[in-house]
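Record type: monomer structure entry
Structure origin: computed from sequence
Chain ID: A
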Amino acid sequence: MPYSALIIDDEELTLRTLSRSLRQEGFEVFTALTGEDGLKLFRDEEPDLILLDIVLPGLGGVDVLRQIKEAKPTAIVIMMSAYHFVERAVEAMKLGAFDYLVKPFQLDDMMTTLHRAAEVLALRVRVRDSVESEKGRYNFGRVVTHNPAHIQMLEVARKAAEADRTTILIMGESGTGKGVLARAIHYASPRTSMPLLEINCAALPDALLESELFGYEPGAFTDARRRKEGLLERASGGTVFLDEIANMSASVQAKMLRVLEEGTFMRLGGTNTISVNIRLIAATNDHLKNAIGQGRFREDLYYRLNVVQLYIPPLRERQEDIVPLALEILQQFNRELKKSFTGFTPAAGELLEQYAWPGNIRELRNVIERTMILTPEGEIDVHHLPEEIRDRHVEKSVLQPFSEADISPTGDQFLSLREMEDNYIEQVLAATGHNKTQAARLLGIHPTSLQRRLKAMTSE
């Protein structure tokens, strides 16, 4: 792919020599003798690469670099300087220059630096292509829904996406698509070309989660032999998505509060303050207000996270979406599996609508994929569906979330939501023969989250 380069230097011989070399490498070349003219060309032509002399008549090279970086932080600028201006070159590097060449430089040295810059440009093109692909995949317009509450939530999410510093809290059961919504928000935001990094807080032990988020210095703990950048540092300029945030330890919560309030943190074992510019999207399938009441979650962090709250209704509350979603998923798997299924019979569609879908959209995808793998192509009928769907009356009795047990013996006082959830977990465990993996699937939570919840229940 051809790139463009801007050379800003007050020596005409240097301009001619560099221009010839760059054109031989396939670059389109623009030249300027002054910093002022160079900035005008930079704004008009938007070159991919800038070669900039430090000493210029009028506006100096360092000031030109500063203005270029303010206008386009990702600009690749290679500084050129004589030996006695090396200190200025170092200053330029601190401002974000890609590299610097000391005059008089060998053409080979210049070409080596140029090739490195071209590699970065090529990588950016690949990243840009990947971003465009992800934007197409995680697009608000591709969400299948006819549910009024879901439609209203998506409209709020679109507006929140545009405010790229606003923190967002996504609430909803496991499998409802919280991660998909977080990606849609990122790719609809001004941060779309910057990193989106995700981490599941329930999938990592507390110490590992802390080191992954904040990084560490050598000697911070056993086996910490070298410095490691954390997730927050690598994502600076972009978005961090923290799933199952209720599982964060108290120490990590305190550090995250500082990140949100001040935009700073320190690596484990470090003493230097690191500044970051991130947009945080958090998600949970837990009731954070209950967690606050139980001392498991900081109230100040909750209010700092809960600037915009988005609630994704479970699939059982979006019955009108089940068959359209199933048809959309079927077409996706037709492409992936190279199949040609035509849809569902009315009876099969009715059965899908009547099922409780404790695992929500994730479970719906799994059911359709499994059915398409095991069933001859054509129309999917009732007998093709898994047993748990066909025997929905058994599943319904197992997964009925409210019962007489939710009311106290006196009949005039309801149990707390936490007690109801504990009762429900015990019902599901009993129904699955205390198979924790199956129970976690039916509950729609991560097995690690279930283990922690059971531990909390036994300690209460």
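Annotation 1: Residues 4-132 form a domain with the Rossmann fold fold (CATH 3.40.50.2300).
Annotation 2: The mean pLDDT is 83.
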